[in-house]
Design a protein that fits this description.
Arc Repressor Mutant, subunit A; Helix-turn-helix domain-containing protein; 100 residues; 62% helix; alpha+beta; three-stranded antiparallel sheet; WH_DNA-bd_sf; ArsR-like_HTH
């Protein structure tokens, strides 16, 4: 694989998370969970992996007295996601060259 390929991002659920965050910038945890049709625990696990890789920023705050969590694709994550998508495009284009 090329240098832009990310094993962390390539996992389908994390690829979907990054795709959504690349579009919206930041999403509330519950909104992201519902959009992806995931359980809290599954989303939390994948967000943690992305956070440990340095790709997302997680912040907590209070809305109407209730604690909320927001997840954002940070600059490092944006760069990694774009590079990963570009690498996938290259792979797809190479596959097209093999077609008769």
């Amino acid at each position: 694989m090329g240098e832009g390929f990310s094993e962390v991002i390539h996992v389908p659920t994390r690829l979907r998370i990054c795709s959504i965050l690349a579009e919206v910038g930041e999403a509330e945890f519950g909104v992201l969970r519902d959009a992806l049709d995931l359980s809290d625990s599954v989303l939390s696990k994948h967000v943690k992996v992305l956070e440990q890789a340095g790709f997302v920023t997680v912040r907590k705050g209070s809305v109407n007295g209730r604690t909320r969590t927001w997840v954002a694709l940070n600059k490092i994550g944006q760069k990694a996601f774009k590079a990963h998508i570009e690498e996938l495009r290259k792979l797809a284009a190479a596959g097209d060259l093999l077609e008769p």
